[in-house]
Amino acid sequence: MSAETVVPDEELVVHRAVVVQEVSVRRRLISGASIVIFGLICIFGWGFGADKGDAIFSLAPSGAQVHVPDLRLPGQVAAVVLGVIVVVLGAYQMARGFSRRQMKWVLAAALFCFVAAFLCWAGTGTGGRSLALVGLLQLSVTEAVPLILGALAGIMCERTGVINVAIEGQLLAGAFAGALMATISKNLFVGVIGAMVAGAIIAALLAVFAIRYRVNQVVLGVVLIAIATGLTGFGYDAFMRNDSTDYNSAGVFSTWKIPGLGDLPIIGPALFDTNVLVYVTYVLVIAVDIALFRTRWGLRTRAVGEHPKAADTVGIKVLGTRYRNVLLAGLIAGLGGAVLTLCGTGQFSPGMSSGKGFIALAAVIFGRWSPRGAVGAALLFGFTDALQILLSAVGTPVTIPSYFLLMLPYVATLVAVAGLVGRVQAPAADGEPYVKG
Fold it and tell me: Using DSSP, how many helices (H) and how many strands (E) does the chain show?
């Protein structure tokens, strides 16, 4: 290359700065326009599309010790006002732009306004009946718990460099084993142990083939899901279908209200008047978050997931760490399977996980491989699942086909993950087999 064709360092720096600025402006305009579109949906879809009258929200369950009066809002006006707020946020983003830190709060505010406007629209179609907002929150937490446990299992694996696509199979195996063992033993806690062991068995297969034999981890996860689906379906046909009394009548955990906390308005019934496995989930979220980011074990785990060769150089047993974490993740995912049966219907049915393992995997990505972020994502997906159940029961101003309501959680998952493409980064060694030199 001749001297005339060499670009000076100063010009190269300026060129890069211009490119970065152009990308930043384009991203700002796209994000702002997207927010404006959601605001317009609030105004013209949820606002002008609402029926006449008030949207009534019940803020306390029946029999609550603390009485909270119902919230009444003019459905059309409230939805339009919320939509205007969203449009203003989007327009400001397009014109001047928020900082990255501010943008998190802006997106949260826009999402809250969008959901609130939608509820105002739905509330006007109930014929004067109130929407049980506390019940919606309770159901959201219940629906989110298996997702939270599945997401924790995914984080435990991927932080050490192992992709766990098999969460769906672990949930399904845990649900089957939990129902079977609890029915046979007449003890729900034995069912929980059985569910965790079943999840760990699937995890052990994942660990051996992914770590020792270095099989493609995505393909392996799909195969393990197929195995779990086939085995649980066969077990259901062989034992449970014709003799449910002896093999598929586990029962469910009863609720236990925490004194004082359970009587708090709105959040008390949703968070502190539930069953023991939900409380165990609270403890696990805190424990995994602290262990992952504030202990030596967590530092070693993250080192193995980011740069295994460097971790091996300083004496960390890379393969041993991966084996241990994958097995622990299997125990947690198996517990999530127990929640499906022992906190739900009390019985197992084939395919009852219904894609929750994949939604949990999406929560891992949406939460940026952080327990706290994954919990937020799982609660969002759980809310959409609870919302479709509630709307199926109370009705809406415009009749929505049931199949569209059933699609709601999966559409929300797809939109959430698609919006993060290219903006989140997995652990550097995620999915990469390690060969000790």
Answer: 16, 5
